[in-house]
Amino acid sequence: MMGSYTRRIPWGLLAAMLMLASGSATALERASPSTADHERFKALQGPFASGPEVTEACLKCHTEAADQLQATTHWTWEYLHPETRQLLGKRHVVNSFCGSVASNEPFCTSCHTGYGWDDMREAPPVAGNRVDCLVCHDTTGDYWKSPTGAGHPVYESLDPADDTARQPPDLARIARNIGPTGRQNCGSCHFYGGGGDGVKHGDLDSSLVDPPRTLDVHMAPEGADFACADCHTTSAHSVTGSRYLTKARDTQGIDVPGHTDFTRSSCESCHGLAPHASTKLNDHIDQVACQSCHIPAFARGGVATKTWWDWSTAGRLGEDGEPLKIRDADGNLEYLSTKGSFRHGENVVPEYRWFDGQVRYTLRSDTLDDSQQPIEINRIQGSHDDPDSRIWPFKIMQGKQPYDPVNQHLLVNHVYSAVDDTALWTNFDWAKALKAGAEYADQPYSGEFDFVETRMHWPITHMVAPAEDALHCSACHAREGRLAALTDFYLPARDRSVWLDRAGWSAALLVLVGSLTHAGGRILTRRRRKDS
Amino acid sequence: MKRVMIYKRFERFWHWSQAALIFFLMFTGFEIHGSYQALGFGTAARLHGLAAYTLIGLWILAIFWHFTTGEWRQYIPTTDKLGAVIHYYLIGTFTGAEHPFRQTTRAKHNPLQRLAYLGFKLVISPLIWISGLLYLFYNQWPAWGLEGLSLGGVALVHTAAAFAMLAFVIGHVYMATMGKTVFSLVKPMITGYEDSREQLPAKDAPDRGTVEAPHQPPSGQGHHPGGSQ
């Protein structure tokens, strides 16, 4: 009895200590659990024949969700820039990758957060059930949109004979398992921009679904395990963090509810305005974006990003008349008859530019000057003397794109058509495709076309490395460092007065040689005196 | 054998720690300037700043010492024997002439040294301090109302002063070997004492340049720093 009594005391103590310990630990689950179990909702039991049917079920409870989403750029693909007054958004811009969405809708709008937007000349469909809830809220990973379905998911097996082919999603099961957006959801479109994994951004690709800590310290499961929305905070389905009007310098610092702008889409909104222990490092943050040092390279996750895309070579077919597909030594696509020639890069060192957050696009309606190539598809603004500008890292995308050399404007790249043979990918005939594209976009067209070299700037902000992998000072503070191209300010170790250096070293050398000569003379004369 | 303390303990401490710091500052400074890569820019810059603060601290002590001991008078420029000393370095040292200057505790520097050190203290060093502190506090310029300054200009002055310092150091080190033997001038800067065994009593005693040890009989003759015989 004695023994069991004494044995019991420590267990009781231990239990009490454990309870105290767990009581004092106030940490919450990272994602707060939902108050609703969607599995038990009758409306979600299905079966659902289509995406819009699921959305109708969602909207029965989430009455405002469709209206909210339809007010965002994710829906409108349209953005009126408040400063440049340019009408931007995917609906309007041309980029250095596929060119333009217009005339290629069912293909490009497969990434629209809706169903059935098949004509870019008109606004997206207005019915609430046209909003796609699942693409953002699927937690099973099984939801996938048809590449040519104008946003609809795959409803029937693409190849019934092949049982290893990806099966159409079980809409009812996905609807019952919806949840907050994760990396996979955003990534299903944003990782594949430009027509493939990692093609467009360089700092966004499928390696970020489950990244190691060295690749992205925030999104890594063994790091902070962030979802995109942890930084790209949302309100009424509107997501913060614009690429058209970037906050290049956040002077508000840590995002305090009720005091600041309620967004965390800047490093400063969590890390504050003096994030380093070293004052000298903090002295840099007014002019150097965090990303410049903390993203030493992009495309670090094993997925290559396109750095060059030359459309002018597209259309060349093999001897058998079939489209060609040629890979380079690294296994990346080098040539496609449908798209032209490519160059890719992994672990790409960014280029650095002053950036105040403002981006101005070269739109289809803008007049080019093809004597000044490359044409800037988007221009970034900023300088050393502008207090709102900081040095930012960029992926600079280059290539050649079709344009009208008579009218001097960019042409619509009509590559895909589900209905006729006007598109490049059907006929491999540029003359026919560009004519159809110009007609579609109601653009003046001389009938002549050529290819103009273009360049486009993509700010780099993801793939933030752990602090220990940040750039060393000498990456920039060196004669030939990373900032060699930015010459509008004095950078220690890079800059100097060559004239002063020559004069200084000459003076020092002169004193040295003079001293040595003097010493030689003394030794010589002393020896002579001794001899005599 | 009589020994006279020429360089007091603090003076020696000041001289050698200043020498070490200046060598280190030049080594790190020219790396910051981009002349070579050794420690890495970040480490070089950090240590350069640290050494600079240390040297500033040392200078504050030294200035205090100079004024409280009256040693600042050692640096009052004089033309007395200046021509003779210059003549000695240009000609006399080759013909076996005796150095025209005799070192004393009152006047431990010959007229040329006085000028050189005064230039070092009043021109090169202040230029380096002021430009260096401005360089270091670049981010505070707007708060100090100094927006008009250019970093390139400040860096230019700092670098120019550093080159002047480099030339001074080379010349200084060479001149320090010009004693009777290579180390005979360096030794008192280490031990403090001038060895006066072979020194004859002073023949002439002008007010600058002979022994005038206030608390000692005037037999402790100091040897001049450049004496070759």
From TrEMBL, chain A:
This is Octaheme c-type cytochrome, tetrathionate reductase family. Residues 57-137 form the Cytochrome c-552/4 domain. The keyword Signal applies. Keywords: Membrane, Signal, Transmembrane, Transmembrane helix. The chain crosses the membrane at residues 503-524. Residues 1-27 form the signal peptide. It comes from the Bacteria. InterPro entries: Cyt_c-552/4 (IPR023155), Multihaem_cyt_sf (IPR036280), Multiheme_Cytochr_ET (IPR051829), Octahem_Cyt_c (IPR024673). It comes from Modicisalibacter ilicicola DSM 19980. GO terms for molecular function: oxidoreductase activity. Gene3D superfamilies: Flavocytochrome C3, Chain A.
Automatic annotation (TrEMBL), chain B:
Residues 196-229 are annotated as: Disordered. It is a multi-pass membrane protein. GO terms for biological process: respiratory electron transport chain. Residues 196-210 have a biased composition (Basic and acidic residues). Keywords: Cell membrane, Electron transport, Heme, Iron, Membrane, Metal-binding, Transmembrane, Transmembrane helix, Transport. Gene3D superfamilies: Transmembrane di-heme cytochromes, Chain C. Belongs to the HupC/HyaC/HydC family. This is Thiosulfate reductase cytochrome b subunit. It comes from Modicisalibacter ilicicola DSM 19980.
